[in-house]
Amino acid sequence: xxxxxxxxxxxxxxxxxxxxxxxxxxxxxxxxxxxxxxxxxxxxxxxxxxxxxxxxxxxxxxxxxxxxxxxxxxxxxxxxxxxxxxxxxxxxxxxxxxxxxxxxxxxxxxxxxxxxxxxxxxxxxxxxxxxxxxxxxxxxxxxxxx
Length: 146
Fold this sequence. Notes:
The protein is of the alpha/beta class.
């Protein structure tokens, strides 16, 4: 059960299969270790574009999490989830992983949320996970500082 004063961050990517899932699980691990009263979730803006995604989460992301010592069996086994307005409304902070890719999807599907989303610049590429790790670490540090 979530703490009453716990806040949430919602990570968005296109398919909720690689980048946003990695960010969610890594954030929850780092925030937990730091005693931060935030919890992350993740969703996709266009799950229908992930027709080539196999399984619940990208194997590369799972392997990278394991290499970091992050164990999250439940989180890596759930299927990708499409973002809803309720998801956006429940989040205290929303981060989309790539502005050039996700801003048009937000404008099309959730225009009222465009100005409320923080955009990172993480391509859907092999080096993405290292960049997400840096971004998540920086985000947690900013949250700790207040």
